[in-house]
Amino acid sequence: MYIADGQIYVFDPSGRETGMIETPERPSTISVVGNTLFITGRNGLYATKVK
């Protein structure tokens, strides 16, 4: 699970935080398509590969 709250926080199925993805600006929306996480911010669109 990915939660946008200043940065992107990553959680496993049990609810334990397993990581954080730093972003160049505060994310407003996120979407996973295949193995890519798309992040929109006020000034741009960003993408990163996820497992």
TrEMBL record:
Top-rank taxon, per record: Bacteria
Classification via Gene3D superfamilies: TolB, C-terminal domain (2.120.10.30)
Name under which the protein is recorded: Uncharacterized protein
Organism of provenance: Dyadobacter sp. 676
Lineage: Bacteria, Pseudomonadati, Bacteroidota, Cytophagia, Cytophagales
